[in-house]
Design a protein that fits this description.
Layout (H helix, E strand, L loop, with lengths): L5 H11 E7 L5 E9 L2 H13 L5 E5 L8 E6 L2 H10 L5 H12 L2 H21 L4 H8 L3 H14 L1
Antiparallel strand pairs: 1-2, 2-4, 3-4
Length: 158
Amino acid sequence: MKQITLEYIRGFFDGEGCINLTKKNHNRIGGMIFITNTDKTIIDKISNKLSKLGIKHNINIVPATLIRKTKYSLFISNVYGCYQFYTKIGTAHPEKEIKFKKLFKNSIRLKWILRAKKLKPQIIRLRKKGLTYLEIAQKLNITIDVAQDIGKRFFKSI
């Protein structure tokens, strides 16, 4: 296998992967994606492709026992990473589709991240023009707290 395609990852995930949903406080749902296999090469190739797509993930190694081979588990543990996986790779598995929708439905964090990504370029452009966060908030019809939070996160990262 030379290169891994998005379709291959989708099929592999549908067959070998899972989504674990967990209940959090205030009826919110959290979740993680897992893709587990004993073939390290496949997991590494999937990992490389996910990295190229900008999807943050980790790999956990479960050592071999007397009755089981070493397992390699690739996992995505945050809602935005799960959202990226869903939008860039997807699933053809009906039960996994339902779980993804449950995970995203009431995610306040995901809604905030998507909104911030949409507003960030505008806030940066206006900030570089010399506008204050109050002026930016008024111009974009958002609270000053949102403007400051998004703006300061950006300027801290450069």
